[in-house]
Structure to design on (502 residues):
């Protein structure tokens, strides 16, 4: 079956023909065929299984069990009666509208015995998708075949039009072995937030789940890793209440759909074990509702971004979220240009356990670039002292971000190089000396035109040379001349030696 010629997704007829010839030729070379055919059936079966599903990561090239059946009657009989050869079924777009492949899929799965199944059925490849009217009748039949084996699904990936995925509702199943579930639908051109509902899997309890452009009903209590694209804030709140085993979560295109929480949902949605969260908000309201309704006490790694890059988020929802979560964050990834200018300054007191801070500044709007000159987290961290308190608050009694080990900044703006030594030097407060355990400082600037990014002053470089245990990586990309990854430390030294203004 072309659908499973190899585990790396190859389905070219030419490649398949060449592979068949190579296999047949190898069998007859130097009498190897006779030696191999003298082996017991059990051993031959093991060799076949290793050939079709190689264990080694060095050589992932595999054969199709159909190829083995072409060699001779004995090989075909052994291959057809070895269930382990038929547990991986891959169907790609060129098979999506083929009636023949519906029958072949039925035969393929019937030979798998009682073993767990890994199934991948996609009607989209490199952005190309068959028209739904062409795919629908064959797709419905194929889903009926696959659903008949739902009791043995272990890994199920369906990349199909949403209207076809919705047909799963007509074939209820429990899929007790299901471990990995990936469902990718299609985005509605008229309404980018419109999603089909897939409810037939409501009794399934997979461990790893990925959904796109769909609303999926599941039993979430055993899910440990979740990835969702195009999702409602109210839906997230519902899932977090049930997903008590969830550890890692990626949420893309989080929208506010106008769904009001029920009376039962007014209490915080607590997801106690969630440690890693990447969330992409598509509008301001989604950020507000998520932060006020969710508590993640076990959160360690947080990445926040905007789905469109033009949204400026308020700070108070994040303050609310960190307060009610009482989590000990270890790393934070955030785009400064998407938040209020003093956002990080106000968040800093809640980040005493933070070891990694990764900042982005992806905006080039002039009014936002002005904020790089004052009242930024860079200046406050570098000049913190009782005489220079946290912006808008009383004097600080403790060092901000005292556990910081890795600091990185990547932006389309000049960086205030003179603030870097202040991140590293000890700060004396109340007679006690505080020092951040920084190990790495990485800065990358993107300048629109040559000369827009200032060189690092000689004084700053000399001060940084005192910190031998810290790794500095300063680079500049120039859009005007196409230069990337220019070592700015070296360029600054050369400019100073050449008599240029640093």
């Amino acid at each position: 079956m072309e659908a499973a010629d190899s585990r790396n997704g190859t389905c070219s007829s030419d490649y398949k023909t060449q592979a068949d010839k190579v296999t047949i030729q190898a069998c007859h070379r130097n009498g190897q065929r006779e030696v191999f055919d003298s082996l017991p059936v059990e051993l031959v079966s093991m060799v076949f299984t290793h050939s079709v599903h190689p264990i080694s990561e060095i050589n992932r090239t595999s054969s199709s069990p159909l190829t083995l059946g072409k060699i001779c009657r004995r090989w075909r009989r052994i291959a057809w009666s070895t269930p382990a050869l038929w547990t991986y079924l891959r169907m790609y777009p060129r098979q999506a509208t083929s009636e023949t492949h519906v029958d072949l899929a039925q035969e393929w799965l019937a030979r798998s015995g009682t073993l767990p199944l890994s199934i991948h059925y996609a009607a989209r490849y490199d952005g190309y998708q068959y028209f739904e009217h062409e795919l629908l009748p064959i797709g419905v039949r194929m889903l009926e075949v696959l659903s008949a084996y739902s009791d043995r699904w272990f890994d199920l990936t369906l990349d199909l039009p949403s209207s076809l995925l919705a047909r799963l509702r007509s074939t209820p199943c429990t899929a007790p072995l299901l471990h990995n579930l990936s469902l990718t639908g299609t985005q509605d051109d008229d309404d980018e937030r419109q999603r089909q509902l897939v409810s037939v899997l409501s009794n399934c309890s997979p461990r790893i789940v990925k959904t796109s452009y769909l609303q999926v009903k599941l039993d979430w209590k055993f899910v440990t890793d979740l990835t969702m694209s195009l999702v409602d804030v109210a839906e997230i709140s519902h899932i977090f209440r049930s997903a008590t085993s969830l550890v890692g979560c990626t949420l893309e295109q989080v929208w506010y759909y106008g769904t009001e929480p029920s009376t039962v949902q007014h209490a915080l949605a607590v997801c106690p074990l969630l440690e890693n969260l990447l969330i992409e908000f598509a509008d301001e309201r989604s950020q507000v509702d998520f932060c006020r309704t969710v508590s993640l006490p076990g959160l360690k790694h947080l990445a926040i971004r905007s789905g469109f890059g033009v949204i400026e988020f308020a700070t108070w929802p994040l303050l609310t979220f960190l307060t009610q979560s009482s989590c000990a964050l270890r790393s934070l990834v955030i785009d400064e240009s998407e938040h209020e200018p003093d956002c990080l300054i106000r968040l800093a007191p809640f980040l005493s356990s933070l070891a990694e801070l990764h900042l982005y500044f992806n905006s080039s709007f002039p009014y936002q670039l002005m904020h790089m000159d004052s009242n930024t987290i860079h200046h406050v961290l570098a000049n913190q002292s009782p005489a220079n308190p946290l912006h808008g608050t009383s004097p600080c009694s403790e060092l901000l971000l005292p556990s910081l080990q890795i600091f990185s900044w990547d932006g389309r703006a000049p960086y205030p190089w003179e603030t870097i030594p202040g991140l590293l030097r000890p700060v004396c407060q109340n007679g006690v000396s505080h020092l951040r355990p920084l190990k790495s400082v990485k800065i990358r600037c993107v300048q629109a035109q040559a000369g827009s990014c200032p060189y690092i002053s000689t004084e700053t470089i000399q001060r940084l040379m005192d910190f031998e245990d810290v790794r500095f990586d300063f680079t500049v990309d120039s859009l005007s001349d196409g230069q990337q990854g220019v070592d700015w430390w070296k360029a600054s030294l050369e400019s100073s030696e050449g008599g240029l203004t640093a």
Residues 35-85 form one domain. The radius of gyration is 29 Å. The longest strand covers residues 225-232.
